[in-house]
Amino acid sequence: MNPAFFKQPPDCASLWQELRQLAAEHPSVRLFRGGRSACGREIPVLGIGSLKKAVLFAGGVHGQEWLTTLLLTRFAWQFAAAWEGSGELADFSFAKLRSGKGLLLLPMLNPDGIEIACNGPAAAGPFRGLVAQIQAENPAKWQANARGVDLNHNFDAGWSVLRAMEIEAGIEGPAPTRFGGLHPESEPETRSAVHIVSAFRPRRLYAFHSQGEEIYWEYGGLPVPHSELIARALSALSGYALAEPGGLASHGGFKDWYIEAFRRPGFTIEIGKGENPLPVEDLEAIYARLLPMLTAAVFL
Hints:
Number of helices: 10
Radius of gyration: 18 Å
Oligomer: single chain
Structural class: alpha/beta
Largest sheet: 8 strands, mixed
Strand order of the largest sheet: 1-2-6-3-7-10-8-9
Helix content: 25-40%
């Protein structure tokens, strides 16, 4: 593990370097490309254990929420060591629990958005002009991908309802946040996420965002076996409150689509508190607090 990686905002190249080092040091880790971004950046996926009975952790969905990428990568190192050693992590015995289970990590779904949030329009490649135009009006915020589409509004779950709400709110085209695109799954990053889930059909989905210290676990009133029970366990382990998103956050999300498509438990976990981007100095305290929850989530 390279300690310097966890002391600054990540970029796509440094993340791949860190994950390659992880895979080189831990034979249980499989690393592969899950797709490409609008700018052509490779989206990494990491797997440990049985990938046909895995849970999926996803982060880096929004540009300024890059702390989730660091959190999941930090967890991957410790989880891989515990998995191979048949030891314990956060009081969980892997020797007893790991049979037939596995973990898929999608630590940076939106590499273009994170690069733009950290480095400005120059990081947007062929879309630098569009990003510069958008940021001229709102330079302080960038959550979207390089095409000005908010990936967590772009999934096919109540998308048409959400689109009407966006238009009513004055969001009619590419924007730094909350524009869901011209149709669901219009973005290569969204399609990559859908492809990964459709290929591996994970038992659970955990989408990590920031901030608020909240857990969202429902969508559309759909009955999902064990979902509330797991949500309450996650809340107890983390101290995060169970909540229900509203308004423009009520449709189009990754966990919304997963719940509707698979009728399996899906969760959005809002890490930390403050204003995005959360400072990198918050990482270790957030990680220490969430480690029991992260470990339990793999086996629940």
